[in-house]
Amino acid sequence: MATVLGFMLAARRSEMQGLIALELTCELVGGISRLVHALQRERGFSNMYLSARAERFRQPLDQLTSDSRGLEQSVRRGFNRMDPETGRGADKARLFNRIALVLHGLDGLACLRRRVRDQALSPQESTRAFTRVIGGLLAVVFEAADTSVDPDITRCLVALFNFMQGKELAGLERATGVAGFASGLFDLEQLERLQYLGEGQQRCFAIFCDYADKPALNAWHQLCTDPVEAEIARLRLVAARSLPGQPLEASLGEPWFELTTRRIDAMKQVEDLLTERLQQLCQQKIRQAQADLDNHRCLLERLDQFDDASDPPETRLFNVQATELDGAPGDTMGQQLNRSVLDLLHEQNQRLQMLAEELDNARSSLNERKLIERAKGVLMSRHGLDEEASYRILQNAAMERSQRLADVAQAVLSLADLMPNASTRVKAG
Amino acid sequence: MATVLGFMLAARRSEMQGLIALELTCELVGGISRLVHALQRERGFSNMYLSARAERFRQPLDQLTSDSRGLEQSVRRGFNRMDPETGRGADKARLFNRIALVLHGLDGLACLRRRVRDQALSPQESTRAFTRVIGGLLAVVFEAADTSVDPDITRCLVALFNFMQGKELAGLERATGVAGFASGLFDLEQLERLQYLGEGQQRCFAIFCDYADKPALNAWHQLCTDPVEAEIARLRLVAARSLPGQPLEASLGEPWFELTTRRIDAMKQVEDLLTERLQQLCQQKIRQAQADLDNHRCLLERLDQFDDASDPPETRLFNVQATELDGAPGDTMGQQLNRSVLDLLHEQNQRLQMLAEELDNARSSLNERKLIERAKGVLMSRHGLDEEASYRILQNAAMERSQRLADVAQAVLSLADLMPNASTRVKAG
Known about the structure:
The structure is a homodimer of 429-residue chains. Chain A has two domains: 4-286, no CATH class; 365-418, Arc Repressor Mutant, subunit A (Orthogonal Bundle), CATH 1.10.10. Chain A contains 14 helices and no strands. Chain A has helices spanning 4-52, 58-81, 89-107, 109-117, 123-147, 151-183, 188-211, 214-224, 227-241, 253-308, 332-362, 364-383, 387-401, 405-418. Chain A is elongated. Chain A starts with a helix and ends in an 11-residue tail after the last helix. Mean pLDDT of chain A is 84; it is low at 307-331 and 422-429. Chains A and B meet through helix 1, helix 2, helix 3, helix 4 and helix 5 of A and helix 1, helix 2, helix 3, helix 4 and helix 5 of B. Chains A, B: Residues 342-369 form a coiled coil.
């Protein structure tokens, strides 16, 4: 039977179940962070192996593959635990669909690895294939951030997603640098790409800094002041100042790879702080929700006791707000308890409203990201541009008008809605 | 085991389950619409009964009470069907908490009705008590609109919520008019209240017009051009042009009550069109999702068949996008099917993203409403104003600066965040 107290408890239980499901998602995100790191290392080494055609890279590459495989199994176990039957609504549908895409990518890795060992594809092709799988994994982290039910956890997931994305761009920068430095020159496309990847990292790490907690921020600032950072900056300048197609010192390939690898490995430590924080937050929130639920049960029991006993307890247990006509008639204590239930319901109501607002705020950077991605998509499909060129158009427009990137993206989308005739659809890569 | 196709189907099933849960909510909303209408009639008659102290109103009042009770039972059955155990997350928690508040209000109706019959309270007190219960029911409809998983259904729920809210303001206008016309004069507070209620109706019906479908809009325009509307407008003018405290013709009470009752009953017909449309939309969406799910299952079976059979089917069943490295190696047909799965996943992905955006758009008016309600709450708690006065301050500021009401509300809230010291909390009424 539907009762006030039944639904009051159901509300708290729903919150609790939401947090428990979120904890599972956060565990999965931790596993994804580790797998992405392993795949990034494997991608980097595969790239070296294919560029240098050096058999001495074969043994460490096999080791990295084996690491990736182990972490892949743990992510797959995380997927298995997700119980697709309990999902409801489009939020879950998006997450499940993302997971299906990830699984599709992971299923294809065996074939990719065989071709790498057969030297049957170019470093660029190999990088692209790994990048697609990593992109799919990052999309799962984005979905997790976008559907988290707790503002603090959302903030932590937003920080983590942006950090992972920044680290992924750092990985692509490493690969582009390896290709250039190893071949002894950069072509125009590679130079533009390096610039794009550098700017992308700045944006991602800026958002990370807005959302991360103190320990992660400190670790990040430490990393930024490390001598490795300065040496990488010097090599970036060597590349940036070279003329397209003009030969460089070919011996810079390995130092670039080693330095950027050290940087990326150091980034992993910041990431680990974030995933630890995520677990702590989940546990803390669940403890809190459990305590609230226990308090509610306690109130329920008191109401029951009062129904049974003839003497009302002497102490006033709850704060009483006298509002006319709320509550059924009865003796004073019953009325007091009844009103304290009403107070509690109003308090819950306000708390849940606040929670929803804080969630919206925590998600704002995700929404801006979605806008920018969609605007890029429109430019790519309608004008046949690639991702970098589309991004540059948005960025130039934003600088010219002193507008935020998200506002320019919104303008592009509004314009596209007005002219829906050019409707070539984008295939996500 | 986590497989591509398993999660692909799970995604579609999640959407399906979300729609089925939404259909249940929409049925409940239909029941709430009927109960609110009955309670509005009962409130109006209770008001008449208490104002006129006329025993001839007793019998029709008892009939209206009996109608309300019947509809209350059906709403309670709707709550019972909701199965609080399946809810997860803060969205459901908000809904359940709202329902707990509604049940608290419904439980108090027996006492209220007894006091009305004992003439033990003023018409204003009775109206306030009924209004609180109706407000709680409207909040459930708001929550339903805010958590609906389909953009078209959200639009319909937004239209319905605003229409119900407008109709509720029309009911309060009726009560305020009855109080004034029956007592033979309006005091300043009543005159200001009539103006507030009139403007509130305009806002609500304007949003309704933005979101409603053709049949409901047509019915609404017909209602607006009905002679009853002109007669009510004339009586509104009589009140508005009277000086505060100056006697009127006392005989206008009953014509006002009858005309406004006819108007509100006519509104109920528009509302019925909206709730019917809601049911149709739910059924249509579920049919569509079912067909999609069947198509997916069909693809799955074909993949299975292909795994068994040695001869690949002769026709090309699916569109093939040749992208390098997607898909495991194998014979051509297997690769084609594999790629068609990838296409399907990317399509789903895009569709779900679009759905999320459309949902955001459909919810925009709800978000504006939340902003305005919160800003009113801040003004009420910090400056000890009542709801009408707070609204008027927002409205005047918006007119002076030629800004939207939501923007002014946002400014008030930002300012309040900067000065959190004056932290008297609002008790929701």
